[in-house]
Design a protein that fits this description.
35% helix; five-stranded mixed beta barrel; alpha+beta; 493 residues
Length: 493
């Protein structure tokens, strides 16, 4: 049998008394006509006398967050989806029975209020209660007002309490869909079509990552939760859908930290007859438009830095950036032996499957990545780490690929897409060889995708972006768990 604290038992006793009055303790439909901040914005400039004359009647509902009981009249505050608003309640306005019901209310109860908008002597917009409705009895006391959930882990485990107590958490929760909607509107206006592709698949491809594996009982086969949406979206280009995008969940069975959660949200988009430059332009547009839509400015303060997201991001080759920081020019490094010597000299860790391109990428990750503060498109990735990108015709060791870095963090990844089925087949074969050498993140051979390319895919540009990291940047959230409503958490002991 469950045991309750003294406060919890008192609330259950009150619940029983409410039921004895013939009132459902857990309520029914209630017609809401207004919200807190909308009322404050609309009536803040009106005087007390003007509001008396206007006789503006409203109906609001929300959770009681504060009560100041004063005999036959009281003030209390409710919180709705937009914020807090004060209520004035008097036995003379609602009658003794309703006022007695109000006096039994606890912090956390949900109530409905019908009344008139007024302004107190201190100038606060307030609703004068003319009809009080009990809606829901809260059986657990809320955390202390000024501290909320002080345990960070509990904040994310019990997000519902976090949203009640933490206005910043609620602000981020409402900002996220606004950012996503800005991206959808931006792309829809450019003629892109939003699509949905499978989450479950039998082939591992589209990115370098460890998958989650599940089992389909009816067919008795193991399946992967997708690590990317890329290959299916490119199949649609083959089919004639020349501009497509998908916003959806991705699953990678990897570590967790400030920037990583095992399930996260990305957007991937593909445009026929475009290329790397086109993808830079559209990525820049998505980011800057989202900033302006959410905050009304391109300026962002994040992690102690002030940056601008105004279009016109810096564009630089990976090798040039490595040279700026280390003095090493990998364009002049001609073979793997020389590259290995440089790695040893600079304490760059080398794995068994590494070749020239892996070492170039490792130098970038160790010495350059975290030094990039302003938005920068880093292009020219080695072919070994870019199995789905077109080769650079000027130097086939590199590809037509970029990553967008801001404040030392990757935000987007894009290619001039590889549409040569013969080249693609060879790259998949190389990925299988890397797997044999210990690269657990190597792609499978996807013969259906090869066949799709054999029908002919238009020259195209493609881009993938992490939605969660963009939300972090635009809302000033320092951990990915702040911007995912229900992040992955280790179970309680």
């Amino acid at each position: 049998m469950r045991e309750f604290t003294e406060q919890e038992q008192v609330r259950r006793d009150k619940l029983a008394k409410i039921a004895e009055l013939g009132i459902d303790p857990f309520g029914h439909r209630y017609e809401v006509t207004a919200f807190s901040s909308d009322l404050k914005d609309k009536y803040q400039t009106n005087t007390h006398e003007e509001l008396e004359e206007m006789n503006a009647e409203v109906s609001v509902a929300g959770r009681i967050m504060f009560i100041r009981k004063m005999g036959k009249a009281s003030f209390f505050t409710i919180k709705d989806k937009l914020g807090n608003i004060q209520i004035y309640i008097s036995i003379n306005d609602i009658g003794e029975e309703a006022y007695t019901l109000f006096k039994s209310a606890d912090i956390g109860d949900i109530v409905g209020i019908k009344g008139r908008v007024m302004k107190t002597q201190t100038g606060e917009i307030t609703i004068k209660c003319l009809e009080y409705t009990h809606l829901v009895k809260s059986l657990k006391p809320l955390p202390e007002k000024y501290h909320g959930l002080s345990d960070i882990e509990e904040r994310f485990r019990r997000r519902y309490v976090d949203l009640i107590m933490n206005d910043d958490a609620r602000k981020v929760a409402f900002a996220r869909p606004k950012i996503i909607r800005s991206i959808q509107n931006y792309l829809d206006n450019l003629g892109y079509v939003e699509v949905e592709t499978p989450i479950l698949g039998t082939i591992l491809g589209g990115a370098a990552a460890k998958p989650f594996i599940t089992h389909h009982n009816a067919q008795n086969i193991d399946m992967y939760l997708r690590i990317a949406t890329e290959l299916n979206l490119k199949r649609l280009l083959v089919g004639g859908m020349d501009a497509v995008y998908e916003i959806g969940r991705i699953f990678r069975n990897e570590g967790m930290d400030r920037k990583h959660n095992p399930e996260f949200t990305t957007i991937e988009l593909y445009k026929a007859y475009s290329d790397l430059e086109g993808m830079m332009d559209i990525t820049e547009g998505i980011v800057s438009n989202a900033a302006m839509t959410l905050n009304g400015t391109y300026e962002v303060d994040f992690l102690g830095h002030h940056i601008s997201l105004e279009p016109g991001f810096k564009r630089a080759h990976m090798v040039d950036l490595i040279k700026e920081v280390t003095g090493i020019d990998f364009f002049k490094v001609k073979d793997i032996k020389e590259a290995l010597e440089l790695a040893k000299e600079h304490n760059v860790e080398v794995e068994d499957h590494f070749t020239y391109g892996h070492i170039v990428n490792a130098f970038f990750e160790k010495f350059v990545e975290e030094t990039i503060i302003e938005p920068t498109f880093v292009f020219g990735h080695p072919i070994e780490v870019s199995p789905l990108a077109k080769k650079d015709p000027k130097d086939p060791r590199f590809t037509q690929r970029f990553e967008l870095f801001i404040l030392g963090c990757e935000y987007a990844n894009a290619f001039s897409e590889l549409n040569d089925p013969i080249d693609q087949y060879e790259r998949f074969e190389n990925q299988l060889k890397e797997r044999e050498l210990g690269n657990a993140e190597a792609n499978d051979m996807d013969m259906d995708f090869i066949e799709a390319l054999e029908y002919g895919m238009p020259p195209a540009g493609g881009m993938g972006m992490g939605i969660d990291r963009l939300v972090m940047l635009l809302t000033g959230s320092e951990t990915i768990r702040e911007v995912i409503l229900f992040p992955t958490m280790k179970p309680r002991e």
